[in-house]
Design goal:
The protein has about 200 residues and is α/β, with parallel strands linked by helices. About 40% of the residues lie in helices and about 25% in strands.
Length: about 200
């Protein structure tokens, strides 16, 4: 996990957050369970992103990240996702070579031309949907939109569930938001408080 103490302290004092969406440009999927075309892949990317926009009560970013005001701008991830090729996504098995490091995720964030409606933006960067192990690996990333400096990056590995590919893998994002609301956000806050006391 990466956390910038000064920026995260500022983030805690902000009331607003910008939701950038779910970025699949780094994603790898196992072929098992994803016997699909390029067009279907793009539809899935759009549908997974729309889940959070269309059902904000269930996928409650405001509650999970303690921000009463949320805006969203999916233009950045829509552009990234549209350029993602099926041939680059699919794998027989997820290997060590497919795993993103903290440094690579931070570098990816710094490369993004972010909208700047609010000072801080949130995105989920999908690392893998693995039908073999039945897990989804996703990086939760907060960034300062002006400097493009990462505020926080942490990988969450969750178990999908439900019927149909959209809902089955969409459950990953629900589980992440639940984890942040229930455990992770408090852990981040306590980490910063502990560091500030030293």
């Amino acid at each position: 996990m990466y956390i910038n103490e000064a920026l995260f302290t500022d983030f805690l004092n902000e009331r607003e957050i910008l939701w950038l969406g779910i970025d699949f440009s780094k994603a790898k999927f196992t072929k098992k369970g994803f016997e699909i075309t390029q067009e279907i892949l793009r539809i899935y990317f759009n549908e997974w992103n729309l889940l959070i926009i269309s059902d904000q009560k269930k996928y409650d970013i405001r509650l999970s990240f303690r921000k009463p005001i949320m805006s969203y701008d999916l233009s950045l991830v829509s552009k990234n996702n549209k350029s993602t090729k099926l041939t680059n996504v699919l794998r027989e098995n997820i290997s060590l070579a497919d795993i993103q490091s903290e440094d690579s995720i931070c570098a990816h964030i710094r490369s993004l031309e972010m909208p700047q409606q609010h000072r801080f933006a949130l995105t989920f960067i999908v690392e893998s949907f693995d039908s073999v192990s039945k897990t989804g690996s996703v990086w939760v990333a907060i960034a300062d939109t002006a400097s493009r400096e990462p505020v926080l990056c942490e990988k969450f590995i969750k178990i999908p569930s439900g019927f149909g590919s959209k809902n089955y893998w969409g459950r990953i994002f629900y589980n992440i938001l639940y984890d942040v609301k229930t455990y992770a956000f408090c852990r981040w806050e306590n980490l910063i408080k502990h560091e500030n006391k030293q």
